[in-house]
């Protein structure tokens, strides 16, 4: 039986490169592309099948930042599949990133210059907005939409006889200082991306604590700094091109510059081939590239504790309950309105 792998954000960047690498290693996989733009997904599907005609590639349309879309996609997936072997929770956004020129200037002359370029700590702020669901957009897209997807797909994921994997695209930029349990949507801060990635790390730890006994395992990955739509939002492509000689030199000292989506998927592909029950849930797996262009995996102990992870998980469950009640009331009101017409 083919292994079934679901990948969110599969039509570009890290997600697209991941699809190509997985099929290059095993074209007997069934890849399900979970994408917002169906036309782009269809084009990706056609390209993948042209290269790997024996593979099975399907599409489910979903906008992770819209809970109604997540519910619809989940229902469709439960009708199609009996189980999912792996979900790559990869879709994410960094809206309106602003480079802190002052922090960059002072960082260039500090002892933390390599660390600054590796993690972008203190360099980036982002704008955020409220979604149709009444949630912060970055939080809903990067964290909560995926959380609801997992909750909805539990019947396909929880099989104690054969484990399933959750693999989250996190970041070296996940900073404890940017996250607060009291403001876990980061509505009052200016670094929602960093906060959302730290929230991802917490959630992964909590999911292991709550679901390992049911055969579901979760891990987090950082793809490094790869040139994708996300990084092109920080600086335009021509600036990255001008900076490339300096970046290539810097890569001899900072292994986070994977630069290409292919290189960035190194840890994501490696994790897929591991026994999930053998992996450390408190470790982040990092894609890394040497100055000479060789890809390898690094590990980093996450700066978090399991009690905070569990508290965050409970807050997400409370938010989920509130969302479901709100949706039910809305549906009931719509039903009553329809009956009066």
TrEMBL record:
InterPro entries: 3KSR/17beta-HSD, HSD17B7/Erg27, NAD(P)-bd_dom_sf, SDR_fam. GO terms for cellular component: endoplasmic reticulum membrane. It is found in: Endoplasmic reticulum membrane. This is 3-keto-steroid reductase/17-beta-hydroxysteroid dehydrogenase 7. GO terms for biological process: androgen metabolic process; cholesterol biosynthetic process; estrogen biosynthetic process. Pathway: Steroid biosynthesis; zymosterol biosynthesis; zymosterol from lanosterol: step 5/6; Steroid biosynthesis; estrogen biosynthesis. Signal peptide: none annotated. The keyword Transmembrane helix applies. Its EC number is 1.1.1.210, 1.1.1.270, 1.1.1.62. Binds to the short form of prolactin receptor. Its main location: endoplasmic reticulum.
